[in-house]
User: Which sequence fits this backbone?
């Protein structure tokens, strides 16, 4: 059964949501994010795209991690988001950081249809949507500057897959809550940022792993 999600009467308050994370979205990003969330309300009336129960929950769920990642990723990087779902955090990154070359990877047809609809309505023809699993993309040998994923795999498993998806010296973003930071040969922690999700109070840490040559 789908969740009855409604647009807040006062609007989506994208800027207010961004403030605790230290990010200031531009006007174009705000308009695009609002259009995305409006479309989410329409689609969620028929399909179970998000577990968010309120409008404020939806903003935080879709955008909180993107607000943080937008401050950490290098300029003009190619970025793959594995298991995008309804768009968090990769689609949000596309709106917040239009300099990034974003590829959204999602295996479910209803979700890829939703993503393509949002991109069409926001005029973002530069964002690529791939209906596939992350392993399929890795098996093809395609690589990116940055790989990220949220809750698709356990952190150690995601780090291993992410390292297959990035170029030499590329970055893998691993999001953890209270789990220990994963370790994988051929990677070093390049940076990290801890924050608290405003809507739940849950702790979150983004760890950025640099892909390096294995020790010999």
Assistant:
């Amino acid at each position: 059964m789908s969740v009855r999600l409604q647009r807040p009467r006062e609007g989506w308050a994208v800027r207010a949501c961004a403030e605790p994370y230290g990010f200031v979205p531009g006007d174009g990003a705000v308009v695009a994010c609002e259009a995305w969330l409006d479309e989410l309300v329409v689609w969620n009336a028929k399909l179970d795209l998000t577990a968010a129960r309120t409008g404020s929950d939806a903003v935080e769920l879709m955008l909180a991690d993107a607000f943080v990642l937008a401050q950490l990723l290098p300029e003009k990087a190619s970025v793959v988001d594995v298991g995008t779902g309804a768009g968090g955090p990769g689609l949000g990154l596309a709106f917040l950081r239009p300099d990034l070359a974003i590829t959204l990877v999602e295996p479910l047809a209803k979700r890829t249809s939703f993503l393509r609809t949002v991109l069409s309505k926001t005029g973002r023809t530069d964002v690529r949507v791939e209906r596939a699993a992350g392993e399929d993309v890795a098996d093809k040998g395609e690589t990116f500057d940055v790989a990220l994923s949220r809750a698709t795999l356990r952190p150690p498993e995601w780090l291993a897959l992410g390292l297959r998806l990035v170029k030499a010296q590329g970055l893998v973003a691993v999001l953890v809550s209270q789990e220990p930071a994963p370790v994988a040969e051929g990677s070093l922690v390049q940076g990290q940022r801890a924050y608290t999700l405003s809507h739940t109070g849950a702790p979150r840490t983004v760890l950025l792993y640099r892909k390096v040559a294995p020790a010999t």
